[in-house]
Write a structure and sequence with these properties.
With 135 residues, the chain is an all-alpha fold. It has a single domain (12-129), classed as Up-down Bundle (Four Helix Bundle (Hemerythrin (Met), subunit A)), CATH 1.20.120.50. It has helices at 15-37, 40-67, 73-95, 101-129. Helix 1 packs antiparallel against helix 2 (40-67), helix 2 runs antiparallel to helix 3 and helix 3 (73-95) packs antiparallel against helix 4 (101-129). The longest helix is centred in the C-terminal third of the chain and has 29 residues, at 101-129. It is elongated and about 50 Å long. Bound molecules: fe (ii) ion (2 copies).
Length: 135
Amino acid sequence: MPFINWSKNLETGIDSVDEQHHILLDILNSVHASMAEGDVSAIDASFKKLMEYTDFHFAHEEKLFAQFNYPFTASHKREHEKLKLEAQERIAEYKAGAIEMIDILAFLIDWLQEHIATTDKRFGDYLRLKKIISA
Ligand SMILES: [Fe+2]
Ligand SMILES: [Fe+2]
């Protein structure tokens, strides 16, 4: 059973973005699965994958902002930078034994869901308003 499931309120309506969000969720589920198994090298590998895919995904969104002249590009990009730094810090804390497994998982779920449900969805709303994607 997956640790977190996709929910409809996370949908932005932008196909490529939604598809990548699903993949991020899958990676987060694999972080959880490797933690549940206590497999240290698998945990490390899934963290690495999460950060690499996050980089790829943020760059994809940022390319779309430029392509469609998104007026909130600067603040959305700042949020991406902050999210990356925070995740790197929390992961380092977890690896150093400073925080528990449950705390890093709770952090990463919030980290992903909050950003999608507010900031990313706002971008979807903009594209709908501009009739770039359908309602
Ligand atoms: Fe996103
Ligand atoms: Fe984003």
